[in-house]
Amino acid sequence: LELNIKKEISTKKIDLHGYSLEDANKKIEKVIIDSHKIGVKKIIVITGKGLHSDNSKDPYRSKDLGILKNSVPDFIQNNKNLMSLIQDIEVAKIYDGGEGAFYIYLKKKL
Fold first, then answer.
1. Residue-wise DSSP of the chain
2. Would you place residue 61 in the very low, low, confident or very high pLDDT band (cuts 50, 70, 90)?
3. Which of 41, 48, 44 is CA-nearest to residue 65?
4. Most exposed: 52, 60, 69, 99, by fewest CB within 10 Å?
C-alpha cells in the first residue's frame, strides 16, 4: 500500500467565508506567498457563491456577501508580485465549489 503523501502537500485549500474584503485579500496574499515557498502547486480558494447578490432589496442581508467571489481574483490579478508566482487561475470544478470557488495554479519554485 503506497500512500501518495506528496499529493497532499501539492494542494492547499482555503475558505474565505466570513472574511471581510480587506482580511480576505490579506489572507490570500499570505497563502499564495507561503504556498509558493513550500512548493504547493494548486490552491483551492472558496469564496462562496454570492447567492445573495440580489440583496439590495433585503435589509437583513449583507451587501458584501457576494463581493469576495469577484474581488479576490481581481485583487490577485492586479497584484504584480502575486501574479509573478501564479501560472493560472480558473473557476473550480463543481465538486470543489464550482462558481463559489476558484483554483490558483502556482509556478514552480525557482
1. ----HHHHHHEEEEE-TT--HHHHHHHHHHHHHHHHHTT--EEEEE----TTTTGGG-TTS-TTTTHHHHHHHHHHHT-HHHHTTEEEEEEPPGGGTGGGEEEEEEPPP-
2. very low
3. 48
4. 60
